Every structure is written in structure tokens, then in C-alpha cells.
Amino acid sequence: MEELVKIIATSLVDEPDSVDVRTAVSGDEVTIELRVAEDDMGKIIGKQGRIAKAIRTVVKAVATRENKRVSVEILQ
After folding, report:
1. Which of 31, 50, 56, 58 has fewest C-beta within 10 Å?
2. CA torsion angle 22 32 74 8 (round to 10)
3. What is the model's pTM?
4. Does 39 have pLDDT greater than 90?
């Protein structure tokens, strides 16, 4: 799932080299942390958060198929 988020994010931003995706595990929940350049934050979040919501929806669908609980955090 980390690779999926990285592919989606790099295709959206102007600075794909600055995309950083890390996975943090706490208990039975997995958190995927997505970091992008400050200038690319708007492209990842989108108008009214629509792109961020779409990324989270795709990851949640994959996680459901694998019986996992995953959340995506977009950090600066």
C-alpha cells in the first residue's frame, strides 16, 4: 500500500523527488504518512479535500481486501 500511495502522489505533484511515504504501525492499525513539498500540498489535498479523500478511499479499499486497518496522513 505504501507503494500505491507513492505512485499516486508522484503522478500529482510538480516535484516527484520530494515525495516521501513512510509506514508506522501501532498495534493493529497501520498509518501511512505522506510528505510532499510545501508547494505541492494543494495538489495532494485538492479543492475541498477531494483528492486527499480519493487517496484515502483507494487505500481503504485495498486494506479492506487484505483485512487490515489503514489510515493515510498527509504531512508537511
Report:
1. 50
2. 90
3. 0.91
4. yes
